[in-house]
Amino acid sequence: MRKRTVTALTTLALMVALVSGAAAQTSAAALTVDEIVTKHLATKGGAEKWKTIQSQTMTGVALAQGFELPMTAYAKRPNLSRKELTIGLPGQPAVRIVNLFDGARAWMINPMTGSDAPQEMPGAESAIAKAQSDFDGALIDYKTKGFAVELLPAATVAGKPAHHLKVSRKDLPTQHVYLDPDTFVELRITTEGANASETDLSDYKAIDGIMVPHSVKISQGGAVQAELKITTVTFNTPIDDAMFKVK
Predict the structure, then answer these.
(1) Residue 108's beta-bridge partner residues?
(2) Of 150, 152, 188, 240, most Cβ neighbours within 10 A?
């Protein structure tokens, strides 16, 4: 049970990423890739407004392997991230599990492995952490990043047709982004490769004019690994860079 729990928490901490969106109506006319991306970026208040946001803090609860885990996640430009999960086992002190990306390497602090010392994550997990730590996500300035975005035939997500964008990312696994055709928020994001995953996003709420999902479900191989219920999201709260470094 402990090994399964640690594995699930590792997957959760690596894959959680804050994804934002917003409401904007569209016509039935066919749209180009750039028009779809522009409408999606409007869900973040527009690319220029989003670039004024330097940090974000999220709190909530993660449901995994029958556990309900208090969670706090921090992110800061350009690609710093820290995720904290607290797990309480009957008759034992609460344990805090920390995953962080310091801009170059990914680390885990997990007393459930038998050590409180920071452990550098192996290559595949570190690559996931690096990809998930991009503060802007894949679609903002995708051309500048050297990414290619292709519009594929519409897919059905959550019982409705969705815009299907294939994002080929330089040195990173390909992603597929599925956007609501009415609001242009993300409904689902899938990532290809050895650590293929599927993230479903819902329960969007406006935070400072930005639509943010408050329910996130993470799956691998068709099995749900974790569900996140977000309680609070704040932008531009000062965060010391030391929060993202191992000691």
Answers:
(1) 99, 119
(2) 188
Domain ranges, ordered by start, for the chain: 2-244
**pTM (2 d.p.):** 0.82
The residue with tokens 């004024």 is 52
Q: How far apart are CA 215 and CA 230, in angstroms?
A: 6
Integer Cα distance of 135 and 77 in angstroms: 6
User: What residues have CB less than 8 Å from 238, skipping those under 6 apart?
Assistant: 55
Integer Cα distance of 57 and 59 in angstroms: 7
SS3 assignment for 38-102: HHHHHCCCCHHHHHCCCEEEEEEEEEECCEEEEEEEEEECCCEEEEEEEECCCCCCCEEEEEEEC
* CATH fold of 2-244: outer membrane lipoprotein receptor (LolB), chain A (2.50.20)
Report yes or no: 21 and 203 within 8 Å, Cβ to Cβ. no
In Å, how far from its chain's centre is CA 45? Answer: 19
Judging by beta carbons within 10 Å of its beta carbon (0-12, 13-18, 19+), is residue 227 exposed, middle or buried? middle
- Plot region of 220 (φ>0 → left; ψ -120 to 50 → alpha; else → beta): beta
